[in-house]
Design brief:
mainly beta; seven-stranded mixed beta sheet; globular
């Protein structure tokens, strides 16, 4: 599976942005997909996860709960991260990652994810 994350850019605080994670491979639906973000000098942190297949189950950490929404379009092999009410502290490089369907939705361990996109930069200005 190859992942390509895109959609980042510059947005004002309070604005919205949607990131996309496009995948190659017919088995993408069978993977749990997560979004992480990272700022210089800090660890890569999870910002949301969506389950494999069609259950649509999601999980978010408290830092983004209510502001970020993950969805997936199985027909397009794409997972989206819709971000609302963006804050300057949301500025980061955002990565999508895919892992086994056996992963728990709250698995924050980056080593648990087998495939990674290249990252897309989101900058939120104040």
């Amino acid at each position: 599976v190859q992942l390509q994350a895109y959609g980042g850019g510059l947005v004002q605080a309070g604005g919205s942005l949607r990131l996309s994670c496009a995948a190659s491979g017919r088995t993408f639906s069978s993977y749990v997909v997560a979004w992480f973000r990272q700022t210089p000098g800090k660890e890569r942190d999870i910002v949301g996860v969506i389950s494999a297949w069609s259950s649509g189950a999601t999980w978010y950490p408290s830092s983004v709960l209510g502001r970020f929404t993950i969805s997936r379009d199985h027909a397009k092999n794409t997972v989206y991260l819709q971000m609302y009410s963006l804050k300057p502290e949301d500025t980061a490089v955002y990565y999508c990652a895919a892992g086994s369907s056996a992963l728990g939705l709250q698995n924050r361990n980056i080593g648990s994810y087998d495939y990674w996109g290249q990252g897309t930069l989101v900058t939120v200005s104040s």
